[in-house]
From TrEMBL:
Keywords: ATP-binding, DNA replication, DNA-binding, Helicase, Hydrolase, Isomerase, Metal-binding, Nucleotide-binding, Primosome, Zinc. This is Replication restart protein PriA. InterPro entries: DEAD/DEAH_box_helicase_dom (IPR011545), Helicase_ATP-bd (IPR014001), Helicase_C-like (IPR001650), P-loop_NTPase (IPR027417), PriA (IPR005259), PriA_3primeBD (IPR041222), PriA_3primeBD_sf (IPR042115), PriA_C (IPR041236). Initiates the restart of stalled replication forks, which reloads the replicative helicase on sites other than the origin of replication. Recognizes and binds to abandoned replication forks and remodels them to uncover a helicase loading site. Promotes assembly of the primosome at these replication forks. Its cofactor is Zn(2+).
Amino acid sequence: MIARVIVDVPSRQTDRPFDYEVPEELAGWVEPGSRVGVPFGGRVVQGFVIATAEQADVDRSKLKPIAELLDHMPPLSPDLIELGQWISEKYCCPMTVALQAMLPSALKGKAESYVAIAPDKAEAALFEADWMNYIRQQGGETKLASLQAKFPDAAREVKAAIAEGRLTERAAIRDRLSVRKVLTVFPPADREEAELALTAIPARAAKQREVLRYMIGQEDPIPLQALIETLSTTSSTVRALADKGLLVMQEVEQNRDPYAGRSFRRTEPLTLMEGQQKVYDQIADALDVAEPRVFLLHGVTGSGKTEVYLQAIEHCLDLGKQAIVLVPEISLTPQMVERFKGRFGHEVAVLHSRLSGGERYDEWRKIREKRARVAVGARSAIFAPFERLGLIIIDEEHESSYKQEESPKYHARDVAVRRAKQHGAAVVLGSATPSLESYTAAALTNASSDGRGAALLPMPERVGGKPMPPVTIVDMREELRGGNRAMFSRPLYEGLKLRLERGEQSVLLLNRRGYSTFVMCRACGYTAQCPHCDIALTYHQKSRVLRCHYCGHAEGSPTACPSCESEHIRFFGTGTQRVEEELSKLFPGIRVIRMDVDTTTEKGSHEKWLTMFGERKADVLLGTQMVAKGLDFPYVTLVGAIAADTSLHLPDFRAAEKTFQLLTQVAGRAGRHRLPGEVIIQTYNPEHYAITTAQHHDYDAFVKEELSHRRQMAYPPYCRLILITLSHEQLPQVINAGDKLAGLLRQSAEEAGAGGGGFNSRFIEVLGPVASSIPRIKDRYRFQCMVKYRGNVDAVGIVRVAVAAVARPQDKASVQISVDVDPQVIL
Ligand SMILES: Nc1ncnc2c1ncn2[C@@H]1O[C@H](COP(=O)(O)OP(=O)(O)OP(=O)(O)O)[C@@H](O)[C@H]1O
Ligand SMILES: [Zn+2]
Ligand SMILES: [Zn+2]
């Protein structure tokens, strides 16, 4: 048998299957999706079998055999392999990169060397060496690394032994992490017999008696360590019983459950409101027919989307299928997890980046071994290894974190639609502020009603007919003119004061997008820049260092201006810290919880802060984007947005959209329950449509205005984009390569018969090369080309060919080229 293997060497030349011979003894085990170790270029590398065949494409006698099989159960299924193929084509990345992205990092194997005593060369004299003895004790073979660690002085002898063939070397792939096994004690199988044995244990072995008596009373096996602690006994006591055959000790696989020991209050389905019911019925119908369908659930904040998700999942499970729920990493808060665990209990696997590698691996295995039927997680949970997928839900579908910024630069929404097609599953995209791409796709579909694309499901009202909170816009320029130079406007100050008096809570958002903390000299205007990247350094108050967020460069903060030596150098400290200080100055004794990158790095810190806030142990929850989403607290009656417009002027065509979304989301945190809420937005751009439409909760008005700008500028959704970034340490090299690439792209665009701009239904246009908005990162100059296209042109294909012609990956010093299809970030 022949196996077609994708080797884990991510480069353009090796991005094709290589044939290997499957050794006789592995023939029954190797199948598509198997992970194997194969000899490649003089070493052993990890690879994935994507197909098996009887015939090879090349001379079979030249084929090398597979060196080893890495798992008993293939970690990838045929549908995931096919999905990997699709990702690799659509997003222009090597197939192995796409396949690796689907697996938990624990399964990224690394090669390890082993040395063994050659069977025919085991001469007696050799065994005098300590290290040789050691190998013998290990059963004739040992890890080279442990031999090196134990016998650092033996390097020359070992090398000589390998060279002379007395030792043989073997490479193998080892996983970074493995299943955790715990020595566990089982209660006696036959209790009566054990009782008898108990009486026979001599009195001087009182400890043994105690252990046995205890174990007779147990229903479940107990980890040895726990038993030792409970009875304050020793392992030798337990072992003595095991030796007598009275107890059984065995290694048992243990799961690292990140939510172990937490109980989730079981919830029952609520009676759906009319609006929810209508939407639910349509999703349930789609589940019943089991055809791939996409829905866009446009429900205002507090309209009860989550309850619809929960009941749709329940229906999906009743049909014997499984469900995936994607939520943005940032809102993967305990509150969110609790809602799913509360309804589906142990059947929920949770996958997110704050779990340790081992925990994530165990949650993944829970899915693969069919112990979980619902996966809740961030972006990569879209690859959860379910076999009968019925439903995929993407909450807050407009979030840019669904796009991965490293290769494979996939968008989870598009991958979801593709996976749903494979399984005949339904996709529900939910948001109060859908992305313009999804919204126009859905609006078009409804109009043409040919059943393709997405169907729009509106939920325009809050649960129980609660009103949307009134929003006040405060013009900060007016405040300044009125003599108020503080960061809080008068209305926001009054609002906070009132909440404190009433014992209600407030949420304060500091929009940090486009607002960073930097060092500037007031005398000459000097700002501290990174020496390796063309970007300002960020000031970290806690450690008092200046740090570059792109390359990690750090330096101490200056006491005088390096440029003019003035002492008027000022640190524009982190926004949230300053707001916190200001709050305690204005309202002595105020209890503030601050949530930002600095206060949430520790594991479980999100949880801690939000629980505290939920228990009303604080008056104000102050934070960045992470306080804007998904939170549902009954005593929050005021939401304030400080500096709402910092994100409006970024060089990004989605700037207005992002600002509108953020303001709408955070406004939605107020007045969700019995108490009415109020929202105050502080801005320097009170007339901007992103702000005024957010004030009136008017998504449609925003979309109309924004679409007219997009049409004018020919930006998505009126076209699609591919961003190609070139980088090199030498400026001329980047410029040359950029010119060459742009030339090739333009030529192919013309040949495709769709050159030039204009608004014919099919076009492709090449912009650039121009310097990127951050022109240098990590000492590498950056230039970019942008391809805009529409209609059925194979733009990705054109880009792939052009990039392959310009890049010379075998040459390490050549220009690096990265391709981003449907980019979210174009800096
Ligand atoms: N059918 C129902 N009957 C009673 N209460 C409901 C019902 N559906 C939802 N709720 C409650 O209404 C509140 C808002 O619902 P939910 O959080 O699901 O809204 P959402 O649309 O997801 O909002 P957001 O987009 O702001 O996160 C919650 O407290 C929820 O428990
Ligand atoms: Zn200066
Ligand atoms: Zn830098």
